[in-house]
Specification:
alpha+beta, 11-stranded mixed sheet, 21 strands, about 15% helix, about 35% strand
Length: about 350
């Protein structure tokens, strides 16, 4: 259940309802929460009447008080997505609704916080119980120590969820899941990636290389580690060694992918003349989760959370009529928290021709 601007903490891999047929999910290996943790970033592109999904986002809940079971929801995506969007116009986050359809919520550019060391952007998001979505929680993001303790490494499987731009869904978001394997860990050397096209700006960041065919709309998608039941570090094939299996948590976010440069000669009839033009190399770049954690635990977010706590405490201290029961400290009402969050977003109506 959700309480105004706060989302109650879900167990990450417990199946919840999803707006799809039960029969379609009966044999599904990917937990529904992975699909429900994402939304789309939309914009009205030049010469377009309707807003178009252009990238992926996901939601993560940060506790307001220590050991609290609820938190402020933040939306997370790749920083370069926000940089590129500024030259086009306002951006919106699209979420499915419990009553059907979707809603676009505008997020002003000034509300975004970007990493100076990586390619991550976050913004506070005013949650509503009408959304058909399940935010992750902060502890789902794998810190560096846990990655090391799990002995995650080259060959471990990865799944990421996000926008398929060729078929995003006409009446609701239909994110897809894609799969791959870690090809290189982020410890040896940093990768130089493009974080702005015009003017061109690049940055060296820590990143995984993952053998998986990313797509343009996958920028900002959450990437999850997958532990096989036959996994045994140091061996390609092993017996079931017990311990932790399945999806242990958030590995990071998809930054982009490498294309094979234009006019590269190939042996075989790929194209007339034996040349391929901008072929997806099948190598994706994934920003590690500790780069996301660094931003979510940084000074700007701490300042926002402190203001939220102060405002919530102030409202709890406000005198109330004797006929009204005081709110529980660990479970503020929706109206109280709506005021405390100082919503930085503005809801917009769903376009009629997209409903």
């Amino acid at each position: 259940m959700y309480d105004g601007g706060r989302a109650s903490v879900p167990r990450l891999w417990v199946r919840t309802r999803y707006r799809g047929s039960e029969s379609n999910g009966a044999g599904m290996l990917v937990p529904w929460q992975m699909l429900e943790s994402v939304g789309y970033l939309t914009q009205r592109l030049p010469d377009d009447i309707d807003r178009t999904p252009v990238a992926s986002v996901f939601f993560i809940s940060v506790p307001v008080w220590e050991h609290d079971t609820t938190g402020v929801v933040w939306v997370v995506t790749a920083g370069h997505v926000i940089n590129e969007a500024q030259s086009i116009g306002p951006i919106y986050v699209r979420l499915n609704l419990r009553d059907g359809g979707f809603e676009d919520v505008e997020l002003p550019f000034e509300g975004w916080i970007q990493s100076r060391d990586s390619d991550v952007a976050i913004a506070p998001f005013a949650w509503d119980d009408s959304y058909w979505a399940t935010p992750l929680i902060l502890s789902h993001a794998l810190p560096l120590k846990e990655v090391q303790d799990l002995k995650l490494g080259i060959g471990d499987e990865v799944a990421f969820v996000g926008l398929f731009s060729q078929h995003p869904g006409t009446v609701r978001n239909l994110p897809i899941a894609r799969f791959g394997a870690i090809s290189r860990m982020p410890f040896d050397e940093k990768l130089r990636v493009e974080i702005r096209r015009n003017p061109k700006e690049t940055r060296e960041i820590e990143a995984y290389l993952v053998e998986a065919r990313s797509w343009g709309g996958h920028s900002g998608s959450p990437a999850f580690a997958v532990l096989s039941p036959i996994r045994q570090p140091g061996h390609i094939v092993g017996l079931d060694v017990g311990g932790r299996v399945g999806f242990p948590g958030l590995l990071g976010l998809v930054q982009g992918h490498y294309n094979i440069p234009s006019d590269v000669p190939f042996v075989g009839d790929i194209l007339p003349g034996g040349f391929a033009h901008s072929v997806n190399s099948g190598m994706a770049v994934v920003v590690p989760s500790w780069s996301i954690l660094a931003l979510l635990e940084g000074a700007q977010v701490k300042g926002h959370m402190e203001r939220t706590r102060t405002e919530a405490d102030r409202q709890k201290a406000t005198p109330i009529p004797d006929t009204v029961s005081p709110p529980d400290e660990a479970n503020l009402t929706r109206s109280e928290f709506e005021d405390a969050l100082r919503r930085a977003t503005r809801k917009v109506d769903q376009p009629k021709d997209e409903s």
